[in-house]
Automatic annotation (TrEMBL):
GO terms for biological process: mRNA splicing, via spliceosome. GO terms for cellular component: U2AF complex. Residues 150-181 have a biased composition (Basic residues). It is found in: Nucleus. The keyword Repeat applies. One of its GO terms (molecular function) is RNA binding. The keyword Repeat applies. Keywords: DNA-binding, Metal-binding, mRNA processing, mRNA splicing, Nucleus, Repeat, RNA-binding, Zinc, Zinc-finger. This is Splicing factor U2AF 26 kDa subunit isoform X2. Residues 147-181 are annotated as: Disordered.
Amino acid sequence: MAEYLASIFGTEKDKVNCSFYFKIGACRHGDRCSRLHNKPTFSQEVFTELQEKYGEIEEMNVCDNLGDHLVGNVYVKFRREEDAERAVAELNNRWFNGQAVHAELSPVTDFRESCCRQYEMGECTRGGFCNFMHLRPISRNLRRQLYGRGPRRRSPPRSHTGHRPRERNRRRSPDHRHGRF
């Protein structure tokens, strides 16, 4: 049954999802349409476009803050520095939601240090005006779909002797593979 439903998704035979909206992103019935209009999330739309045009993305963070210096910020970490440079050059000529896109390279190599730990624990008293990043969460399913990875391991595997292998210090110099958009 699941195979059949997957085969008719977005076609005329699909009685649940609007085939016109699926094909062209618009429907003449608008909100009155009897079928569902499956709209991609902002994160999914931006991630897909950037990865298709510029190269493999390692990480993408969308800020949910309200402060002037963080509102609307999207941080993308590309696998290759050249991809980030090309994205910045081309995105500065773009508009999104009626506003010009301001893209720049960032020296940040580890976004965990930029995030508000209190917000992650549900305890930030500063709300949207906090100076640390409050990241907009995405579902596990969307994360797997975008990044194509399964769940991460919580600890390094043990060697045959029962000890955890010693981790090497893998600090990177700021290589500007990250862009702020």
